[in-house]
Design goal:
The chain has about 325 residues and is α/β, with parallel strands linked by helices. It has twelve helices and eight strands. Helix 6 packs across helix 7 and helix 9 runs parallel beside helix 10.
Length: about 325
């Protein structure tokens, strides 16, 4: 995703915040924080010892960088994050988008599904992520019951996530029925990511966890995506959709698409981080690839710690004052 992390030559360069941006870290200036050159050299799209005149990565990922990635045929990565340390780690690893998902319901709060989680539970998680991620675009899920009643309710909830949660954008689930809701939110200054296909908040209405968009149903998803993007959604996320359908949706819209169980034709991919890193136990969905086994590593560490405490080996002299 080289160009998505580099200044877009078709847009004016981003300037320092004209009204201030809070206290600057010691030894830095406001200009340095917002300058494309301020991004670490390890970020995607950058190389050590770049040639003179080469475009440098931007300091912050914006929605237009994601759009530029699609235009250039490039990809970006998205992971969930719910706390300070994962946000910091994923941000420094170059993950372009962090999702404070309603999946916190069943990955943080211990619920069986995403339905019980509330706005008030998600807002502190969102603040922690946004405060800790210096470069990634932070998107917050609007949880079940916080936007369905009316466009006004959706705007009100979206405003809370941007003001109280410090999010950069929000995500809502649902098809073209919510086009006017998206339009109202965008007009209010709230960037919206649309989520179609399998929508977990509607699992009871959908009859459980079922792939969406098979066969003749593919046109419904295309129509949903077109309506939502026409209303102003800056991106479309597709979950549990056949790869061919996802490719058709991606071709039908100008905005980037993100897949989770939707094949490889989308501009971006997203996974729940506890699935990706092997922290969660139990059966994994077909679309999950595990890149680590943190559950075993943490279990081994906890067992070793417990044994050291019980045997009197910890704390030793080197750990005492």
């Amino acid at each position: 995703m080289a160009s998505s992390t580099s200044p877009d030559s078709s847009m004016p360069a981003e300037l320092a915040a004209p009204y201030g941006n809070g206290p600057a870290p010691a030894g830095t200036s406001a200009a340095a924080e917002t300058s494309p050159a301020a991004a670490p050299s390890s970020t995607p799209g950058s190389t050590a010892g770049q040639e003179p005149g080469a475009r440098k990565p931007v300091a912050k990922i914006r929605t237009h960088h994601l759009r530029q990635a699609k235009l250039n045929g490039e990809r970006f990565a998205m992971l969930t994050a719910y706390d300070q340390y994962t946000a910091e780690i994923f941000d420094q690893a170059g993950i372009e988008v962090l999702l404070v998902g309603d999946s916190a319901s069943n990955n943080v709060f211990g619920n069986e599904t995403s339905l019980p989680v509330t706005v008030d539970e998600l807002l502190p998680l969102c603040r922690a992520v946004t405060r800790s991620a210096k470069r990634a675009l932070v998107v917050a899920d609007l949880p079940f019951g916080s936007y369905e009643v009316s466009a006004q309710q959706a705007v009100s909830t979206g405003v809370r996530f941007l003001k109280e949660g410090l999010a950069h954008a929000v995500k809502i689930e649902g098809g073209k029925f919510y086009a006017e809701t998206v339009r109202a939110m965008v007009q209010a200054g709230i960037p919206v990511m649309a989520h179609i296909g399998f929508t977990p908040q509607s699992e009871h209405a959908l009859g459980g966890y079922r792939v969406q968009g098979r066969g003749d149903d593919a046109q419904r998803l295309i129509d949903d995506a077109v309506a939502l993007t026409d209303a102003g959604a800056f991106c479309v996320l597709m979950e549990m959709v056949p790869a061919a359908t996802a490719a058709a949706v991606d071709a039908a819209v100008d905005v980037p698409t993100i897949g989770i169980g939707a094949g490889n034709a989308t501009t971006g991919q997203v996974l729940v981080w506890q699935d990706m890193a092997g922290l969660r136990g139990g059966r994994m969905a077909k679309f999950v690839k595990q890149y680590a086994d943190l559950r075993t590593s943490l279990s081994d560490a906890a067992k070793a710690y417990g044994e050291d405490v019980r045997s009197g080996q910890f704390p030793g002299p080197e750990h005492s004052f």
